[in-house]
Amino acid sequence: MAHDEAGLTEESVLQEIESRKWQLKKRFSGDTIFRGMTVLFAFSVLAILLVMVAGMCRESLPAFAKFGWRFVTGRDWDAVQGSFGALPFIWGSVISSIFALLLATPLSVGTAVFITEIAPKKVGGVVASLVELLAAIPSVIYGLWGVLIMAPWLQQTVEPFLADHLGFLPFFSGAPYGVSMLAAIIILMIMVVPIITSITKEIILAVPQSQKEAAIALGATRWEMIRIAVLPYGKSGILGSVILGLGRAIGETMAVTMVIGNTPQISLSLLAPGYTMPSVIANEFAEASSNLHSAALMEIGLILLVVTLVINVLARLLIWSVTRGERRGSAL
Amino acid sequence: MTGLAWRKGKSAAMTLLLAMFTLAVLIPLVLIFVHIIKMGFSSINFDFFVQIPKPTGETGGGMANGLAGSAMLILLSSLLGIPVGIFGAIYLSEYGGGRFSDLIRFSADVLSGIPSIITGMVAYTLLVVPMKGFSALAGAFALALIMIPIVLRTTEEQLKLVPGTLREASLALGVPLWRTTLKVTLRSALTGVMTGILLAIARIAGETAPLLFTALGNQFWSKSLTEPIAAMPLQIFSFAISPYDDWHRLAWAGALVLVTIMFGLSLAARYFGRSRKYNS
Known about the structure:
By secondary structure, chain A is mainly alpha-helical.
């Protein structure tokens, strides 16, 4: 290329500019495209969430238009008659999750405290990884174990015992079926324990050493140290982990479907079969008999989605409030 | 009997109580493992890996189509889930930093807490209805939605651990930012990223609920990706709730194989996780 001053014409200058532009473009286009791709993929995460909520709203519209708010108070679920009320499922989800959490919380927090504050380091490590194993088992395998091993045991041993000794209470009346609300509560308890334990463990580890030393220096025993210095400090974080466990319990599908008995009824007795929101979706959605039927199932799904969204947001905020100061990133 | 002795006694009693709680947590774990191993080993045989399920009433048969189907679903969902997760993570760790990044992170955390059956319903609406049929593709899409937040968050954590000086050295040599990110930053974090991917695969390998009305399951071999496809967890589910002993037997064998695969994956993940720490 000749850079002779005399040879400069308008045309050659323009050509030169074009070629330099092209070079610049070639150099930076890789970065631009790459950056664009990363933005796109990052944005897709938000998009998925929005599409989920919008899609579920749209699909459940026919059911909402027909039943309005009666949908959540109605007790009648009849696909043949086209009458849909979700109360038995909401009841089943609430009862099974709440009782599972009531049982799981003391066990999990106790285990987390044991792992971090009491057990020798090696023992604690082994227990912690065993609990992690518990979390890795797929829910269908909990269900398999629940329906083939636990339910028969409940039917033959535990439920007759409860009915004999506590049968005067409405909670333990009726025939022992094995597959029952009680079975769902126990299986859910086993499944949420690892979640609450592992997060609570992280939270206890985030309690400043100086807090604990201060308690010991004042003459506290080990339990007093745990009660005065450890648990109050992690209070909101532990609450967060329990709420996260609640979210898991409410959304748990397979294991519960396999052991709860799938009967849409509202019974005070824990020995009676029940039904939950995810279970009815799992059982009926693929074979929904009419548009209204699938819209009703979609609306149950929407309720489930909104409840778990609220629960998760709340739980994350609580957990962050404790762990953020100590270490970067979430405990999960 | 108040005072020190009382307080020490109380402390000892509480210690004992906490130890018993821990024991109570571990008992079901041990029981589940004992049963899976006992029932699984007595049920498993060579046929399990090479035959498809026999019709009701006939004994024998296996889960070969379920194994292959699960492998196919995992492969397909990885093709979508891994790139989206990794590129999203690159944005968060290399470019982001503002409100938008926080929003993405928050969405990913919230997304990973959504019940997997909802993911299945969404995949049904987006793919099964327009394609007019249950398919392997829809199943893989549902699983990919579960993978994305896991891969995204673990990859981001790993990328953030790569020292800035490495990036600067590469940029100073005139390597464009995008090549630096792929060849230096991502490369250095590779073992950690692999850990996240393996954990995500282990998670979706056992997922059943999102496949119920997307992949649907299949008693036979599927011939194309637009057909319903069998998957291990789906087969375990339908065999477990069936009234036949022979199918229960297959379900236990399937559970043993599935758990073995998943633990293999998480052991591999730990191996990768460990070697990363060793390097840095």
